[in-house]
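Hey all, quick one. A colleague (J.T.) asked me to put the zinc ion job into the tracker so the inputs and the structure tokens live in one place instead of scattered across chat threads. No bug as far as I know, just bookkeeping. Sequence used:
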Amino acid sequence: MARIILVNEMKYQYRADGKRLFGRALPLFVAATALLGLTTAACGGDDDGPGGGRPLVLAATVQVEALARVVAGEDAEVTTVLKAGVDPHDYELTAGDRKAVERATVILRNGVGLDGYLDSAITGKETRAKTFVVTEGIPLRVVDGEADPHVWQNPLNVKVMVENTADALSAKDPGSEAGYRDRAAAYLQRLDEVDREIAALMESIPPANRKMVTNHDAFGYFIERYGLEFVGAVIPSLSTQAEPSAKDIAALQDLVRREGVKAIFAESSLDPKVATQLAKDTGVKIVDDLYGDSLGEPGSGAETVDGMLLANARKIAGALK
Ligand SMILES: [Zn+2]
């Protein structure tokens, strides 16, 4: 089956093996297009803008940025709106971010309601970038009617993000497609390894201890993937913007005691005050530096998505044993 990828109003047709038909195989492309009843725009040059033809990629979140860097290699320039340690749920664009949006030729978004801060900048007429949502195709968890945006907490979802990133960069920059596809393929293997390593770490936790209390509901995909049990969250929401009431906290204290929870997990990008107090009041351990919405600082080993997933898994296994 051939796929159609829309690139700046032009439709390129791909064979199942990823080779582009456009160009040398133009007659075949036109015939196939006619057969499929599709319309094509005139063949025009893609506006690559400044940067000597290398795509200028703007990633909406740190996870999307890290994956884009892996796939881009030297073939594209990658920048991000968010930095490590910044909470995406309440982010507001700076003037510098708006400039970056204007400069970009490709924008990669997480979507699922997480990076709404980009909306106002992208709808403007000045935006020339093609925008891709790299989480497309991932089966979403739904909590209280809301889709969970924290898809990167499951390495299998990350694989979909990597493939979508390779599709996006290849569509924008077909000349470097082989490089994008090769680097993506190598990282897909790495993610399979990480998945197996995490599964083994979780297996090392006594089954009765595989219970998670987190700061906000950011680890649902991880918990589902590795058969853990989600007992509750200090901020009982997919967003960090909700406030727990005294009643919520009291109910969670009861749950922690009743369920024999071994540790409370807070996150590197959130104030751990309430979670720390909960751990103190219930006499359990506190881990206050899981990567929920963010990645580690450069050099921490958790600045990559695979490194972040393993770092979290080691901390979880260590605290629940
Ligand atoms: Zn979050």
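Adding what we noticed when we looked at it: DSSP finds ten helices and twelve strands in the chain. Confidence is low (pLDDT under 50) at residues 1-51.
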